């Protein structure tokens, strides 16, 4: 199990739902005050979406 007990998997049935979840994940380091911009967080795919190289190769969601 990857998530905590009170969480559960959610099917992302549309591109809009996928984009909303991706935006949420990218904004978390900003909300925590770790960085000013999502693409500045070294461990985020936001770097790749901003045209910068991230730590891992990713598959872009379009």
Supply database-style keywords.
62 residues, mainly alpha, 2 helices, 34% helix, globular
Q: Which spans have pLDDT < 50 for at least 5 consecutive residues?
A: none
Extended strand count? 0
Mean pLDDT: 86
How would a crystallographer describe the biggest sheet?
A: none
Distance between the termini: 28 Å
Number of helices: 2
Helix and strand element order: HH
Roughly how much helix do the residues carry, as a percent range?
A: 25-40%
Counting helices, strands and paired strands, the structural category is: mainly alpha
Number of domains: 1
CA gyration radius, whole angstroms: 13 Å
Indicate the overall shape.
Answer: globular
Strand content: under 5%
Helix and strand arrangement:
Elements: H1 15-31, H2 46-49
3D structure, described in words:
The protein has 62 residues and is mainly alpha-helical. It has one domain. Helices cover 34% and strands 0% of the residues. It has 2 helices and no strands. The termini are far apart.
Quick recap:
This protein is mainly α and 62 residues long.
């Amino acid at each position: 199990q990857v998530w905590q007990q009170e969480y559960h998997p959610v099917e992302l049935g549309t591109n809009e739902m996928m984009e909303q979840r991706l935006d949420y994940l990218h904004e978390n380091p900003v909300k925590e005050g770790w960085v000013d911009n999502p693409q500045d967080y070294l461990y985020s795919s936001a770097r790749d979406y901003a045209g910068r190289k991230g730590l891992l190769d990713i598959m872009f969601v379009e």
